[in-house]
């Protein structure tokens, strides 16, 4: 696997792609889930919150909006560059989820939105989230349902395989790998967080057009470095038939985004 493919598989993106992510992906998909996760974690004003793998700071900003004192970490400097610009009140640090640079019991709640699938050691990451969370506090994580159960992606991924190859398709499958029955529960139990409350939430993916969906999906995520203008033109030309079913009468695109929230009390 080359450097670009490795970056795609592990969720690494450059600052340019992070800006596309914030401008396009956050309103199209991720932004709506952040207040739900903050609510599920029981975050209130005055609480100390750690957001792990914060990306561009979506959940961190939602926790800040509720009056919490927020710290956030990410391993990706490109994401942190954008996050710091958008929320200077948050203490952003570069750190891996598996080795959080904080004392035990330092936070009242720990959140992690749609990032657990990218960690090198998921169980260790969950253990460290529990370690830094105050007894009685909550660790709240969210993952997507399987790609086969996710409208839009169950048709986009096979198309991507045809146009960009199997490695690109596997990279796009990565965000959905923890959605299978019992997968997330098993990780939590192995990390000492058994008995977590499991909450199923369904958001909506919305894009201005089919081309905008593809530009966002590829340009604002881990595949940005793999897609040449020629590849994007080929992908858009091939997309009309398999993806046209998600086009509304006004040309916009929308489909459901099923997700699973797990809230564990420490």
UniProtKB/TrEMBL annotation:
<dbReference type="InterPro" id="IPR013216">
    <property type="entry name" value="Methyltransf_11"/>
</dbReference>
<protein>
    <submittedName>
        <fullName>Ubiquinone/menaquinone biosynthesis C-methylase UbiE</fullName>
    </submittedName>
</protein>
<dbReference type="Pfam" id="PF08241">
    <property type="entry name" value="Methyltransf_11"/>
</dbReference>
<dbReference type="InterPro" id="IPR050508">
    <property type="entry name" value="Methyltransf_Superfamily"/>
</dbReference>
<dbReference type="InterPro" id="IPR029063">
    <property type="entry name" value="SAM-dependent_MTases_sf"/>
</dbReference>
<keyword id="KW-0830">Ubiquinone</keyword>
<keyword id="KW-0808">Transferase</keyword>
<feature type="domain" description="Methyltransferase type 11">
    <location>
        <begin position="50"/>
        <end position="140"/>
    </location>
</feature>
<keyword id="KW-0489">Methyltransferase</keyword>
<dbReference type="GO" id="GO:0032259">
    <property type="term" value="P:methylation"/>
</dbReference>
<dbReference type="GO" id="GO:0008757">
    <property type="term" value="F:S-adenosylmethionine-dependent methyltransferase activity"/>
</dbReference>
């Amino acid at each position: 696997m080359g450097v670009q493919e490795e970056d795609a598989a592990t969720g690494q993106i450059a600052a340019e792609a992070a800006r596309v992510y914030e401008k396009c992906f956050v309103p199209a998909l991720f932004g709506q889930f952040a207040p739900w996760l903050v609510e599920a974690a029981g975050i209130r004003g005055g609480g100390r919150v750690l957001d792990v793998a914060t990306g561009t700071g979506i959940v961190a900003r939602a926790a800040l909006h509720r009056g919490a004192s927020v710290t956030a970490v990410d391993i990706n400097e490109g994401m942190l560059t954008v996050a710091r610009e958008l929320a200077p009140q948050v203490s952003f640090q570069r750190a891996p989820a598996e080795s959080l640079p904080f004392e035990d019991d330092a936070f009242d709640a720990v959140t992690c939105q749609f990032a657990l699938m990218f960690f090198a050691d998921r169980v260790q990451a969950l253990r460290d989230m529990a370690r830094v969370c105050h007894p009685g506090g909550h660790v709240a994580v969210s993952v997507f349902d399987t790609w086969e159960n996710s409208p839009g992606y169950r048709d986009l991924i096979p198309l991507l395989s045809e146009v960009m190859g199997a490695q690109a398709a596997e990279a796009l499958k990565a965000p959905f790998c923890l959605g299978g029955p019992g997968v997330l529960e098993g990780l939590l139990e192995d990390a000492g967080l058994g008995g977590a409350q499991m909450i199923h939430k369904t958001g909506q993916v919305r894009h201005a057009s089919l081309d905008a969906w593809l530009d966002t999906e590829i340009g604002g995520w881990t595949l940005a470095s793999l897609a040449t203008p020629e590849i994007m033109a080929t992908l858009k030309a091939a997309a009309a038939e398999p993806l046209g079913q998600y086009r509304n009468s006004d040309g916009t695109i929308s489909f459901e985004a099923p997700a699973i929230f797990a809230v564990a009390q420490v």
